[in-house]
Amino acid sequence: MSNVLELDRVSSFYGPIQALREVSIEVPENQIVTLIGANGAGKSTLMMTIFGDPRARSGRVMYYGEDITGLPAYQIARKGIAQSPEGRRVFPRMSVEENLLMGAQVVDYRDYAANLRKIFTLFPRLEERFGQRAGTLSGGEQQMLAIARALMSMPKLLLLDEPSLGLAPLVIKQIFGAIRELNRETGLTVLLVEQNANQALRLAQRAYVLVNGQLTMQGTGAELLAKPEIRAAYLEGAH
């Protein structure tokens, strides 16, 4: 099985502060890979480093075997990587339709209608809210929109940063169900960053644990879910 994404001993900094310390991960094609860790562990920094902001100071980011470490973000997006960022970051004054159009900027507009139908199948609520301003949507609806906007670029790799953050349990179940469906039905490769370790480990085929910018553990989702130290740190009354 080939890897869509590889990070090879990647270190990155915010000014003088080192945020990632020689992190190496593999994201195989057609799989969901999750990265869990406490708040401030460096999970979001890893996602941003893939897109070059911050730029990896050492190590390499490889995409289908190509070194993309030094590429600008817009070129990385055009290669088929899309990100749904932490905190959703929809365009609040723009409608749902306009947000989705923004996601489709890097692909052929002739695919727009077909892609939109797929989005509405996955998230029917967005069809109901199509003309509504994104800023007036509920938190769960905004998260659906953020994921849908990323999907409109027809990515080969989807980066999801904390999709369950601040959402009610029922909405979290819907979001993770949609991620599972995407992977099963289309084979979409997903790199998922999550504090909700229980949901993430149940969803992912492969998992990594990040602590203070360093990888401390890896294995299948089921293997990590069964480890007492993982349960104590992330599942038993803690994230």
Task: Give the SSE layout.
Blueprint: E1 3-14, E2 17-28, E3 32-36, H1 43-50, E4 58-63, E5 66-67, H2 73-78, E6 81-84, H3 96-103, H4 112-122, H5 124-128, H6 139-151, E7 157-161, H7 169-186, E8 189-194, H8 197-203, E9 206-211, E10 214-220, H9 221-226, H10 228-235
Parallel strand pairs: 3-8, 3-9, 6-7, 7-8
Antiparallel strand pairs: 1-2, 1-4, 4-5, 9-10
Helix pairs in contact: 3-6
Index terms:
27% strand, Rossmann fold, globular, four-stranded antiparallel β-sheet, six-stranded mixed β-sheet, 10 helices, 239 residues, alpha/beta
Structural commentary:
Helices cover 38% and strands 27% of the residues. Helix 3 packs parallel to helix 6 (139-151). The chain folds into two domains: 1-80 and 156-239, P-loop containing nucleotide triphosphate hydrolases (Rossmann fold), CATH 3.40.50; 88-154, no CATH class. The two termini are 32 Å apart. The chain is globular and about 45 Å long. A hairpin with a 2-residue loop joins strand 9 (206-211) and strand 10. It has 239 residues and is an alpha/beta fold. The strands form two sheets. Strands 6-7-8-3-9-10 form a six-stranded mixed beta sheet, with helices on both faces. A four-stranded antiparallel beta sheet has the order 2-1-4-5, with helices on one face.
Q: Which term fits the overall shape?
A: globular
Order of helices and strands: EEEHEEHEHHHHEHEHEEHH
Which superfamily, in CATH terms, is the homologous superfamily of the largest domain?
P-loop containing nucleotide triphosphate hydrolases
**Would you count the extended β strands for me?**
10
User: Whole-number average pLDDT?
Assistant: 91
Instruction: Give me the CATH fold name of the largest domain.
Output: Rossmann fold
Secondary structure: helix percent: 25-40%
